[in-house]
């Protein structure tokens, strides 16, 4: 497993390497469960924060959390784990599908929130914004965590998201350029 070993996982979990290997003899199964566990952590945080809010505060809490700007609720520092999982998707079709579905779910939830918060935004625009958010958020954290840029760039990324929202609200989606957002090629 690149960047991620049984030893590293055992150390962080406070368990022995042998115990981890006993329950997960196949590295792919371990990464699939790790992927689900991390998604569950994010889901729980978002339900306890954004889920309890109304109106614009819901979208703001969602975006602020992912750019680590939400007061009192830090974004988990799990970027190395996501880097390892993303790297493993090249050789694990199951992990590629699972991780892709989790990003798609983030997009679906946010597209719904955009549509509710911005009634002038058409469905295609809401979905495109959710795609742009996932790409911007993922790219931001790769620049910060993987390449070592200062975390304060999160303010730039968050403001960029606000600008994208305003531009989409001001201009309808191009009907001729409709793309199935978060779609995958069919074989």
Automatic annotation (TrEMBL):
Superkingdom of source: Bacteria
Protein name: Uncharacterized protein
Organism of origin: Pseudooceanicola nanhaiensis
């Amino acid at each position: 497993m690149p960047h991620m070993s049984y030893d590293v996982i055992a150390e962080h979990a406070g368990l022995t390497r042998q115990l981890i290997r006993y329950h997960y003899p196949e590295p792919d199964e371990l990464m699939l469960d790790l992927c689900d566990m991390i998604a569950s952590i994010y889901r729980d945080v978002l339900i306890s924060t954004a889920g309890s809010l109304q109106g614009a505060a819901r979208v703001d809490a969602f975006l602020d959390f992912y750019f680590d700007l939400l007061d009192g609720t830090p974004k988990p520092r799990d970027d190395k784990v996501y880097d390892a999982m993303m790297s493993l998707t090249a050789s694990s079709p199951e992990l590629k599908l699972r991780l892709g579905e989790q990003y798609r779910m983030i997009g679906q939830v946010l597209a719904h929130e955009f549509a509710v918060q911005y009634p002038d935004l058409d469905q295609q625009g809401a979905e495109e914004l959710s795609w742009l958010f996932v790409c911007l958020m993922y790219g931001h954290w790769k620049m910060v965590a993987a390449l070592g840029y200062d975390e304060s760039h999160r303010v730039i990324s968050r403001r960029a998201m606000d600008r994208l929202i305003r531009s989409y609200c001001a201009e309808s989606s191009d009907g001729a350029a409709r793309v199935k957002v978060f779609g995958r090629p069919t074989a």
